[in-house]
Amino acid sequence: MKRRDFLAAGLSVAAASGLGRLVRGDEPGSPFGIRGVVLTPADFSLEDWPERAKRAGLTTIGLHHPTSPGEIARWLETDAGLGVLESCRELGLEVEYELHAMRELLPRELFDKNPEFFRMDEKGERTPDSNCCPHSERALDLIAENAAAMARTLRPTSSRYFYWGDDGLPWCACPSCRELIPSEQALLVENRTLRALREIDPKASLAHLAYHNTLEPPRQVKPAEGIFLEYAPIHRRYDLPYEKQTDPDQPDALSALDANLAVFPAETAQALEYWLDVSLFSKWTRPAVKLPWRPDVLEADLNTYAKRGITRVTSFAVYVDAEYRDRFGDLRFLDEYGRALSARVSS
User: Fold this and answer.
1) pTM confidence score
2) Of the residues 15, 76, 210, 329, which has the maximum number of CB atoms within 10 A of its CB?
């Protein structure tokens, strides 16, 4: 099988920009050693994003694309992308890549020759529409090989990797997989991928994304050492502190986090939140709405996470770009977000 060549352009971003291992930012006195934002390339139309992040006391910028890691790689080969990497290096900011990567880790064009690589739907038919069949060893080998190739191009400065499944889409219902819930199928892929990553980066760790259909924690499959929880409660409310969302029908209830923390260690877990995600509040449609910023909700939520031993927190901040600044002007919420993360919160 032909390996997906993520170095086709002949440029390794990490090598070209001189990025090395950066200080992680685990300052004494702060409960949150990792304090971040997750952005898309388009958000850097706000050209001083790295400087704003540093001024706010953040430690980490995650780069995101909803479907294509290749788009991130191509952007990082442009003057704009390389400039962002250089600014982050000079400012001591970590750079990570948070990616729905499955379509490039297991290219859909392989389906005609190797349908067994791909999931079976509820009708018993193989389909390349989403994810994979985690009981196909050859599919897992290819995914792992391509993840290692991708990591050589999109090399995080922190050795933390984020290769998520297709965004909220179904997993496999074949006879071997149907007894496994989506989070267990995802974890089979993650355990195999981490082994490949550690062949090129011995310090590598890999996220297990608890989100949407993978929110229910795995039981039958155990995480390998180095798999960390990334908890993303996209369906919760943001007009009320998380701990007060006690309606029995509340989507993404806080009990899901506690259930996941019974499986994954709290000391490596990361909350991936949406407090700053203008794209979410705009329903992923432009023109963007003004962020319904609630610092009281943020501070209460930080207490909730800190009480559970979580010291790594980040938020999507998509659509916080030059257009947003020009329309609404006020970006003080970035500094308020950073200050709240940097302050010692009460237990």
Assistant:
1) 0.92
2) 210
pLDDT tens-digit readout, 173-189: 999 999 999 999 999 99
Residue ranges of domains in the chain = 29-342
pLDDT of residue 311: 96
Q: What's the CA gap between 149 and 144, in Å, rounded?
A: 9
Beta bridge partners of 315: 37, 273
Report whether 13 contacts 70 (CB < 8 A): no
Burial 54-70 (b: 16+ CB within 10 A, else e): bebbbbbbbbbbeeebb
**Could you tell me which residues come within 8 angstroms of residue 243 by beta carbon, excluding any fewer than 6 positions away?**
254, 300, 301, 303, 304
Residue 114 neighbours by CB under 8 Å, 6+ apart: 1, 138, 139
**Under CATH, which architecture does the 29-342 domain have?**
Alpha-Beta Barrel (3.20)
- Give the sign of the dihedral formed by CA 215, CA 216, CA 217, CA 219: negative
Place of tokens 């200050």: 339
Tell me the pLDDT tens digit for each residue of 276-313: 999 999 999 999 999 999 999 999 999 999 999 999 99
